[in-house]
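Structure tokens please, single chain.
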Amino acid sequence: MRPPDSHPDSHDVRITGFASYLPRLMHDNATLPALDEPIEPADLARLGVHRRGWARDGESVGEMAVLAGRRALERAELPAGELDLVILANWTQRRYLPEFAPTVKHQLGAGRAFAHDLGCACAGFLYGLGTASEFLRNPRYRRALVIASEQTSQRARPGSRGTLILGDAAGAFVLERGPEGTRDAGRGGRLIDYELASDGEHAAIMEISDEGWVRTFIQQRELCGLAARSILEVSQRMLARNQLTLADIRWIVPHSGTAGVQAAIVRALEVAPDRILTNYRDVGNVSSASIPVALDHHVAAGTIRPGDLVLSAAVGGGWYAAAALYTVGDPPADRARA
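Here you go.
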């Protein structure tokens, strides 16, 4: 199906570059530190993760953000100095002072841009896309870089099963207002629409302990169900506004969460499992970076092709939910041959 025209209340925003960064150290299941209690092979298989990256020296949240952002700018063929806005989503290493975004902007060389940090837990990247899109409504701003960079592995209690699931990564999108705001109105994919939601009723189901580890106060089955319902609700609202249904979507690229969350999403959306794409098996749960990292992976693999209509959705502790509808464009090499 041809992607829809922009919603009447929206504006044309192009996704002209995207990229990801994974740590140099990628642990497979055999190289991870020992657990407090041994895990049976069948239970390990059900967790569904075979590799995950753990950041080391030179791979702080800021450093990974710079590397992913620089790659995205290179693919967009856009000098950092032409950016107007840099948004960095991160919750796993949040600091009161200094935060990360101004330093990331400086290290990228985005001299004229303003920059700010964003939380929103695992939904942070999609909240960043929505925030950047709204800034690009203003004629003062034409180009934005949205980055998610997370050290999720450090939020797992050492020796716990969480160490088998949580990984580190960064991902980034370059957004440009079009058509007058872009160097080429047909360049890249399109951010068609987005939907954001929050619900403080569920704020107390998850927290970070004094030791710095994720702690939940809800049964895993209930958490999976809440995540799936929240994703369904924001996705349906966005699709209805664009006169679409899930049958019109080629691919669904959600925040990967856990294997249980993914199974609950399949049931809630009532779609074939092979239409839902993650790279959870190879990177683990990388929180807000999940969507750009998975998109980069599946575009590079040739699964997602130029013009495919993609729905991404995420939830985050707090409680946040978000969805985005977009297409991707040709990779740089294809544009060069055209």
